[in-house]
């Protein structure tokens, strides 16, 4: 399996301003692809932030504006984009909102993931997803395990994704200040315990209720930090050698030594 080049787009998200956020996302994404990135990761609900006060107007379907424009960018640049949006789902007379994770490959939505663990206030607005499965890319020999923000605290999520064949763990987040130490510790721990490369992409700036420290991080399967962002809007890019994963798992056979009869 060839090395891949991944990028984290660490954005300052403008609250409820989809146009401004998409423009910023594409500007930063252009920088990432110019540096050779093939997989670009954006923060949680990057196009609007947690726009609860205008959730009806900012939410969209899987065929909505943000996804269509992200598909166009992915198609034009032959790359993979990973992010989440606020999804509006209408079934008969019922309306449900989800924190919808999306993976686009070469212009096509190849997988989605609805956040299964909404955090505190999110529960007032978002329904919970009921499925945790990896996303298998069609044109690359690569499987993505996606989790969203608060789920970084649940080792079971990353472990399930790893056991089901993920090659790369991706966390998209709005992890707030002052939890930088927790964020970094958990991001590294999820990589070490699952012997899997991990791209954890956070946001920066200020939302209506809290601020965000950034600290996006790219970690290899041994838990070594390959690249780390500061607290500003920035793009970090790093090569990941997936062959290294197999070497590490051979050296320390965690998955072979698991006692699935006990846990």
UniProtKB/TrEMBL annotation:
Origin superkingdom: Archaea
Stretches of the chain forming a coiled coil according to its record: none
Any one Pfam family match given in the protein's UniProt record, by short name: CN_hydrolase
InterPro entries: C-N_Hydrolase, C-N_Hydrolase_sf
Claim: Lipid metabolism is one of the keywords in the record: no
Key words of the record: Hydrolase
Domain CN hydrolase residues, every copy: 4-242
Molecular functions per Gene Ontology: hydrolase activity
PANTHER family in the cross-refs: DEAMINATED GLUTATHIONE AMIDASE (PTHR23088:SF27), NITRILASE-RELATED (PTHR23088)
The protein, known as: Carbon-nitrogen hydrolase
Organism: Methanolobus profundi
Lineage, broadest ranks: Archaea, Methanobacteriati, Methanobacteriota, Stenosarchaea group, Methanomicrobia
């Amino acid at each position: 399996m060839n090395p891949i080049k991944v990028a984290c787009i660490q954005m300052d998200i403008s609250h409820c301003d989809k146009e401004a956020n998409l423009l910023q996302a594409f500007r930063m994404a252009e920088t990432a692809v110019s540096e050779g990135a093939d997989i670009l990761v954006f923060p949680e609900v990057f196009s609007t932030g947690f726009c609860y006060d205008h959730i009806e107007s900012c939410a969209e379907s899987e065929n909505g504006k943000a996804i269509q424009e992200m598909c166009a960018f992915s198609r034009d640049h032959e790359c993979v984009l990973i992010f989440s949006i606020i999804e509006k789902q209408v079934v008969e007379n019922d309306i449900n909102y989800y924190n919808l994770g999306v993976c686009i490959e070469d212009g096509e939505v190849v997988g989605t993931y609805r956040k299964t663990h909404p955090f505190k206030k999110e529960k007032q607005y978002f329904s919970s997803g009921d499925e945790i499965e990896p996303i298998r890319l069609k044109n690359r020999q690569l499987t993505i395990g996606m989790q969203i923000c608060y789920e970084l605290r649940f080792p079971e999520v990353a472990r399930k994704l790893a056991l089901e064949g993920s090659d790369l763990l991706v966390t998209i987040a709005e992890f707030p200040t002052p939890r930088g130490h927790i964020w970094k510790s958990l991001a590294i721990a999820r990589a070490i315990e699952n012997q899997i490369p991990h791209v954890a992409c956070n946001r920066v700036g200020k939302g209506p209720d809290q601020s965000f420290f950034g600290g996006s991080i790219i970690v290899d399967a041994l838990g070594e930090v390959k690249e780390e962002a500061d607290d500003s809007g920035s793009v970090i890019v790093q090569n990941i050698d997936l062959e290294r994963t197999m070497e590490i798992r051979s050296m320390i056979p965690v998955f072979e030594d698991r006692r699935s009869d006990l846990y």
